[in-house]
Design brief:
Strand order of the largest sheet: 2-1-3-12-6
Strand content: 5-15%
Distance between the termini: 34 Å
Largest sheet: 5 strands, mixed
Radius of gyration: 21 Å
Shape: globular
Length: about 425
């Protein structure tokens, strides 16, 4: 997956203006009838599902697609895998504008709000009633993330706080002791781990990663109201200082697309990241041993909560069939398979087993209590672009701006 670089593409602004929300044909069938609306008895309706993820993710989804007829005999489910998160965000807006996007997608709460605000997702409350799917299987906390202004926009899939990952062998070979719990301890360890072509820490100049630093200092974007807060300034100063000291590296400077590639190629000893690392590393570097910890403390315990959900797009050709297929993806067999890859399923019946199946993530339990939403401004793409561009201009381009100046400049765009 992820490259879990979930920033929106620059094409979004160009394409959103061209998007016209189309409603699917109404269904004359009851919730108990599994035929897609507008189909004749015995005919199948094709539903297209889009996601980005690992080869292992694709295998699980394809297996689910092959078995969907055991539940919905009239639905044919086709899977579209985008090569990377960047390709997903670059391609999806244009597909939506052209009316050729998948019927439903898997998406995280980090990038969802702008799409909801632009009216590109289908509220599913009425569809839940007409299809008869059972939303009681999902915990209220998960459903609340996808409830905006009293409307449901997604079928919850996973929930998990952000992580701090350490190359276990590098740590032990360096003779370091207890794992770090604060950024001060991380910096001291990074100086020891910084050897040859290996940097002590990977700091991906991406909104997801920057936000986790911000939250560890008690900060946050406040949906655009607190961008230049003192806490946020402190977090950026920490990032900038690590680059000035030569202990940090960003994937772009090494020709990689995201932090997981740097980590799997062992060009960086530590990184912020998430549960998707397990599935990715299992495929990219199965011999690499790592430790997963909560985001280190700046002045407080703080990190982001990532929640994935299945979203029906506004112009889905058959919304009822799309919702049924999306709901089917949360079946126990599929969710258990993803649990083996490190995903914490948003199912009350299974989530209790998560840390038993993924003991390497057991240190993350406390973070479930204090991790929170990303709190990006409504114009998410413009904000995340500005944040990344300003930091890259400083760290990669030598703009000379201070953290305060960077955040003041961005804040002025969202007043």
């Amino acid at each position: 997956m992820k490259a879990r670089k979930r920033t929106l593409s620059a094409l979004l602004i160009l394409c959103l203006a061209a998007v016209v929300g189309l409603t699917a044909c109404g269904s004359s069938k009851t919730a108990d009838n599994t035929e897609g609306s507008g189909t004749k008895s015995g005919q199948k309706v094709t539903v297209n599902f889009g996601f980005w993820g690992t080869a292992q993710d694709l295998a699980i989804y394809q297996d689910a697609a092959d078995k969907i007829n055991t539940v919905y005999p009239d639905i044919e489910l086709k899977i579209k895998q985008y090569p990377s998160s960047e390709q997903f965000w670059n391609t999806l807006p244009g597909e939506i504008a052209a009316g050729v996007a998948p019927d439903f997608i898997k998406m995280s709460n980090e990038g969802a709000y702008e799409y909801i605000n632009k009216n590109l997702f289908t509220p599913i409350d009425d569809l839940i009633q007409s299809t008869g799917i059972d939303m009681s299987r999902f915990p209220e906390s998960s459903k609340n993330i996808w409830n905006v202004d009293g409307k449901m926009y997604g079928i919850p899939n996973t929930d998990m706080p952000a992580m701090f990952l350490i190359n276990e062998k590098m740590w032990k070979d360096a003779g370091l002791g207890a794992y770090p719990t604060t950024w001060d301890e991380v910096i001291q360890a990074a100086k020891v781990l910084n050897k040859g072509d290996v940097k002590g820490i990977i700091v991906n100049l991406d909104a997801f990663h920057i936000t986790n630093y911000v939250k560890s200092f008690g900060g946050g974007w406040g949906y655009g109201k607190t961008i230049n807060s003192p806490e946020n300034v402190k977090a950026l100063e920490l990032i900038i200082d690590m680059y000035k000291e030569g202990i940090a590296v960003t994937p772009k400077s090494l020709g990689f697309g995201w932090d997981g590639e740097v980590f799997s190629n062992q060009k960086g000893a530590m990184s912020t990241g998430g549960y998707w690392y397990k599935g990715y590393l299992k495929d990219a570097n199965p011999d690499l041993k790592y430790v997963a910890l909560p985001i280190p403390k700046g002045t407080t315990n703080g990190s982001t909560m990532s929640s994935d959900a299945y979203i029906v797009l506004k112009d889905a050709k058959n919304k009822e069939a799309a919702l049924k297929a999306a709901y089917y993806m949360t079946n126990d067999e599929t969710q258990k398979a993803f649990m083996e890859l490190g995903f914490n399923p948003a199912l009350t019946s299974l989530s209790g087993q998560y840390f038993e199946k993924n003991p390497e993530f057991s240190a993350l339990k406390p973070a479930l209590e204090y991790s929170t939403d990303f709190e990006y401004p409504t114009d998410t793409k413009r904000f995340t672009d500005a944040l990344v561009q300003e930091l890259e201009a400083l760290i990669l381009g030598g703009s000379g701006k201070t953290a305060q100046q960077i955040l003041d400049d961005i804040q002025s765009q969202f007043n």
